[in-house]
Amino acid sequence: MKRVVFDVAVLITRVVTGVIFVAHGWQKWQAGLGATTGAFSGMGIPLPGAAAGFAAVVETVGGVLLILGLLVRPVALLLLIDMLGAIIFVHGGRGVMVGEGGWELAGALGALSLLFLALGGGRIGLDGLLGAIFRRREGRRAAEDELIEHRRGPAMGPGPSNVRTTGVRPAGAEGAYPAGTGVQGGPEAGAGGRAEQPMTPAEPGTPAERPEASRRPSTPRVHAGGLDDEDMRDIDALISEDQPEHRKPPNR
């Protein structure tokens, strides 16, 4: 609510000040730049021709821009310079009252120009409208960029793979699995062998899991006739004593 009151007050002050400047500038144009230059020369203003042209253009165009609320701060700076020149070279030594040629009017207009230079023209004006459009466009662009980065991040970032690959047990790893125990493979695995098992690579930063067979105690397999694996190995040992020739292990 306070901001709305401020904007309305600035709008009214800006329009009134702009109308006053337009009136004084238009008066100089109506009198003609030659007559205005002569008047400035009689007042002792240095460079009267340049000063007359500067005052006529700045007061007329600057007043219109103040009313519209466009380029308020740059225009206010030029109008402040114009009023300071009027006070210093014309009205400063004539007192305060405007009827006596004092600096009353020039001082009030200069103070208003300084206020606009410091605070701007408020939101009710072309500057406020263009600024709101620009900020809205920048906010929309920033939101779109953030959405694009959010969508692109998971697709490009590293993540755990869900693809299961088939790995072959490395050479020399047969000793880690007792013969006849663990998961049994097909006919191509041989006695006590292990078929190729699907292997999933361990995720980064986590220790690789040991095979299930190495963590669980093996249960002796019972063969026909009530014989377990240990009995079968004893029988194999007796047979090997009768037949000393060395038998090549299957699939070696």
From TrEMBL:
Pfam families on file: DoxX (PF07681)
Spans traversing the lipid bilayer: 5-27, 47-68, 75-93, 105-126
Membrane-related topology note: Multi-pass membrane protein
Name of the protein described by the UniProt record: Putative oxidoreductase
Domain of life: Bacteria
Region (Disordered): 145-252
Similarity-based family: Belongs to the DoxX family.
PANTHER family: INNER MEMBRANE PROTEIN YPHA-RELATED, OXIDOREDUCTASE CATD-RELATED
Subcellular location(s) per record: Cell membrane
Biased composition, class Gly residues, residue ranges: 182-193
Source organism of this protein record: Nonomuraea wenchangensis
Compositional bias of kind Basic and acidic residues: 243-252
Keywords in alphabetical order: Cell membrane, Membrane, Transmembrane, Transmembrane helix
CC per GO annotation: plasma membrane
